[in-house]
């Protein structure tokens, strides 16, 4: 059986390159926008693109959503994978 080890907060803070993903509900709450409005803005390049996480699951990079909220996000800053 595979053994798992949970990381402590201190261990996670030493790894700043870990990217957290947010799903639909959290993205809606953070951005204050509806799913439809975000999809429209995504198509126009005005909101970070959603990523397919597997199956039907989608998510957004928290760092990109936070940058969008601050008005600092640009489409060219998005990571594609």
Q: What's the gist of this structure?
A:
The protein is α+β, with helices and mostly antiparallel strands and 81 residues long. It has a domain at 20-75.
List the helices and strands and how they pair.
Elements lengths: L8 H5 L7 E2 L1 H8 L3 H9 L7 E4 L2 E5 H9 L11
Antiparallel strand pairs: 1-3, 2-3
Structural class: alpha+beta
Mean of residue pLDDT values: 87
- How big is the Rg? 15 Å
**How far from one another are the termini?**
31 Å
What's the total helix number?
4
Q: Sketch the topology as an H/E string, one letter per element.
A: HEHHEEH
- The low-confidence parts are none
The helix content, as a percent range, equals 25-40%
Query: How does the major sheet shape up?
Result: 3 strands, antiparallel
- The side-by-side strand order for the widest beta sheet comes to 1-3-2
Overall geometry: globular
Determine the strand fraction and express it as a percent band: 5-15%
DSSP, total strands: 3
